[in-house]
Prior knowledge:
Elements: E1 23-29, H1 36-46, E2 52-58, H2 65-75, E3 79-83, H3 90-99, E4 105-108, H4 120-128, E5 134-138, H5 152-166, E6 181-184, H6 185-191, H7 202-209, E7 216-220, H8 235-249, H9 256-282, H10 287-308, H11 318-348, H12 354-377
Parallel strand pairs: 1-2, 1-4, 2-3, 5-7
Antiparallel strand pairs: 4-6, 5-6
Manganese (II) ion is lined by residues 110, 112, 114, 226, 231.
Amino acid sequence: MDDTTTAQPLAGAALAPRPPARLSVIIPCYNEAPNVPEMVRRLDATLAGIAWEAVFVDDDSPDGTAAVAKGIAAADPRVRCIRRVGRRGLASACIEGVLSSAAPHVAVIDGDLQHDETLLPAMLALLESGEAELVIGSRHVEGGSAAAGFTTWRARLSEAGTALAARVLPMPVSDPMSGFFALKREVFEEVVPRLNGTGFKILLDVILSAGRPLRVRELAYGFRARQAGESKLDATVMVEFLGLLVDKAIGGILPLRFLSFAAVGLVGVVAHMAVLALAHGAMGLGFGPSMALATLVAMTVNFVVNNRLTYRDRRLRGLAMLRGLALFYLVCGVGALANNGVAALLLEGGGLGWGLAGVAGAVMTVVWNYVMSATLVWRAR
Ligand code: GDD
Ligand code: MN
């Protein structure tokens, strides 16, 4: 077995043209092609005299971000690029970037030049001196600002999110929503198994997953206006933010996906009742056919919403989506049969009242549908 803690440097390491990096800079990117070369130029200028490396993590952006980054990487050994195919997500991109690197200290910075990279040397100094294990670029300490980079409604939203997050933080942090921070690798490796990994708020995720107050320092910076491209923050990202807080608040007992799946299921019930009322109640269609129609509509609604929300990161499109829908009908059909069967059994043999029997059947169906669709319909790639 290889023991990395006592590993001797390989003979060829002596030929290595550069010292090992002291700082790995992780840069999540989606459609940031025009910003990549400028990012590298700025890192090169601001980190002069420090051995650093940059890892661009791109989710197969249509604008060719990965090709630009790999073009630079081919000429500059300090630069690397991970191109993830069929995946999306800022937080998970950061996680993979950090895990792909080995420097004792790691920084995460947006690839759109909105964060102030000139803070990086000070961040590294605080980590290396042991003064802090986490350093945050903050817009909310003396000297920091968010005005330039945010529209009014984004600023309000950010304030609301920060206030909400403050309630669950284990230590005071003025800007837990920042996407710009640096930390000791040990800390990251310690928390990574517990990270939620969805959405935008990787820093908040790290803080909430640490399980102890971290020694933190905040450095002020002004959030800059975007030069090229546009923000990827949308309504789903906000839902994911609330999901992260819920997940951390309930201690990760139930997977977030399950909660989302169950909530979408409730939406399906509403759709079901609406169609039933319309077809049977208002239009006088027979109860049987009305039920069949309502079930079909409810399953379709559930599929579409789950595909957009619950399984956003594995979203099916085109033919794969039709195939997924057919599988979903099948899974839910079996689930519904099992629901009736279990409820009937419990009612007769189990001595449960019809209410409890019905609830037990419904819970079983949700779990069945969730497990089966997670493994068959939206398979992890
Ligand atoms: N790989 C990858 N995958 N990168 C992504 C994705 C994704 O799905 N979504 C966004 N990014 C990249 C963007 O290309 C950009 O480099 C960075 O992540 C931030 O995304 P923006 O869409 O520009 O976010 P923002 O400017 O609205 O907000 C950012 O800054 C705030 C202030 O620090 C985020 O980092 C917020 O979390 C943060 O609060
Ligand atoms: Mn941005």
